[in-house]
């Protein structure tokens, strides 16, 4: 039997229901699954918060240990104080019963009881959400492939969802911003922390202009290791489909992919080089039926989305390339090349080739890397 010392049960009050949601979420020793089990049993968050230990014993599947932790923590919890700490930080929140809580997320197993957020929810089209996940130690190839694919969604009403981690997550958010898409970042800590610290500017960009940041954690909760896989269910849960850019056989991206399938959402993968260990998970998923994606239309067809597309102009007319620039660019379609290789292929003299390479760089179409090698950017 649960023991509530002195058998003191907090009295019912006239506090708004959101106070109880926040109070629940401020207790680190419990989680959303525990909160939602109580809420679903009692049908009222205040009744759930104020229930006594005898009532808890009647709830099938309720963790006795977590119930004990909750009863103990509740005694010393100042509901108004923990709520005011959220307001003081200018953090918005959506409780599970809020009408603005994303419907796709409500439908998953173990939805977050509370979603804290920064940014403007009105920016986001929750009817066209695509999760993009991948390795933290992402390859140049994966980032380039992702850029090529997302460029095909440029200036549409699609929202890119990812985890604001290093690697593919960061690339996905930045590419969304570059291509005029809104983006949602889901973090594995409270808002008192920025992880990784290198993404501080990206956090600010999403909050101020380009999207929204979500967290299920009370502001003071640290980015502990076990919270990252918990976060992944929200990334996929917010989305109609998940695009995996890179994934080793043991990776957070593969966890998100499996969650996507469990949630009944569409799973898509970008094929990579078979010599890269970070593609082993990709090919496992593809062999098991994930959709192969090599262009934006593959995503649109898989999710049955219609978007307003820009005029289908070729690159030469869009960017007003000269014949020589077009010729140089044609030899960078497949892979990067160095100056000598390009000179042999184009049969241009040194001065002419240098001039055209410089013009293409200035237009942002190619990029010089590793000394004298050139790669195509668009």
Blueprint (SSEs and pairs):
Blueprint: H1 17-25, H2 32-42, H3 45-50, H4 53-56, H5 64-75, H6 79-88, E1 92-95, H7 103-106, E2 114-119, E3 129-133, H8 140-151, E4 159-162, H9 168-178, E5 182-186, H10 200-210, E6 211-215, H11 227-237, E7 241-244, H12 252-262, E8 266-269, H13 280-287, E9 291-292, H14 296-303, H15 315-319, H16 323-330, E10 337-338, H17 339-346, H18 350-362, E11 366-369, E12 373-376
Parallel strand pairs: 3-4, 3-7, 4-5, 5-6, 7-8, 8-9
Antiparallel strand pairs: 1-2, 2-6, 10-12, 11-12
Can you characterise this structure?
The chain is of the alpha/beta class. The protein has three domains: 5-85, no CATH class; 103-303, Rossmann fold; 315-376, Winged helix-like DNA-binding domain superfamily/Winged helix DNA-binding domain (Arc Repressor Mutant, subunit A, Orthogonal Bundle). It has helices at 17-25, 32-42, 45-50, 53-56, 64-75, 79-88, 103-106, 140-151, 168-178, 200-210, 227-237, 252-262, 280-287, 296-303, 315-319, 323-330, 339-346, 350-362, and strands at residues 92-95, 114-119, 129-133, 159-162, 182-186, 211-215, 241-244, 266-269, 291-292, 337-338, 366-369, 373-376. A nine-stranded mixed sheet has the order 1-2-6-5-4-3-7-8-9, sandwiched between helices. It has a three-stranded antiparallel sheet with strand order 10-12-11. The longest helix is centred in the last third of the chain and has 13 residues, at 350-362. It is elongated, with a radius of gyration of 25 Å. Residues 1-12 and 310-314 have low confidence and may be disordered.
């Amino acid at each position: 039997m649960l023991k509530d010392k002195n058998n003191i049960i907090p009295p019912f009050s006239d506090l708004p229901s959101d106070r109880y949601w926040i109070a629940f979420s401020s207790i680190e020793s419990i989680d959303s699954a525990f909160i939602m089990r109580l809420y679903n049993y009692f049908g009222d968050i205040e009744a759930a918060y104020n229930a006594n230990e005898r009532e808890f014993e009647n709830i099938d599947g309720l963790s006795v240990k977590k119930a004990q932790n909750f009863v103990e923590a509740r005694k010393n919890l100042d509901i108004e104080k923990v709520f005011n700490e959220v307001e003081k930080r200018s953090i918005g929140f959506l409780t599970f019963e809020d009408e603005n809580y994303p419907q796709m997320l409500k439908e998953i197993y173990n939805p977050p009881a509370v979603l804290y957020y920064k940014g403007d929810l009105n920016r986001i089209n929750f009817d066209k959400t695509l999760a993009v996940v991948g390795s933290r130690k992402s390859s140049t190839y994966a980032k380039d492939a992702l850029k090529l694919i997302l460029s095909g969604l440029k200036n549409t009403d699609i929202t890119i969802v990812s985890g604001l981690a290093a690697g593919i997550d960061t690339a996905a958010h930045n590419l969304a911003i570059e291509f005029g898409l809104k983006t949602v970042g889901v973090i594995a800590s409270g808002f008192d922390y920025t992880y990784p610290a290198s993404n501080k500017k990206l956090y600010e960009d999403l909050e101020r202009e380009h999207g929204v940041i979500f967290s299920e954690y009370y502001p003071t909760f640290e980015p502990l290791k076990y919270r990252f896989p918990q976060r992944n269910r929200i990334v996929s849960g917010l989305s109609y489909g998940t695009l995996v850019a890179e994934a080793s056989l043991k990776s957070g991206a593969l966890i998100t992919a499996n969650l996507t399938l469990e949630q009944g959402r569409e799973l898509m993968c970008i094929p990579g080089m078979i010599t890269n260990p970070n593609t082993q998970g990709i090919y496992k998923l593809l062999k098991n039926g994930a959709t192969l994606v090599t262009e934006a239309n593959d995503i649109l067809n898989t999710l049955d989305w219609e978007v307003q597309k820009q005029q289908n102009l070729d690159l030469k007319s869009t960017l007003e390339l000269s014949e020589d620039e077009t010729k140089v660019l044609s030899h960078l379609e497949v892979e990067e090349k160095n100056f000598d290789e390009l000179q042999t292929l184009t049969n241009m003299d040194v001065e002419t080739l240098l001039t055209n390479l410089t013009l293409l760089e200035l237009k942002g179409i190619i990029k010089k890397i590793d000394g004298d090698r050139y790669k195509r950017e668009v």
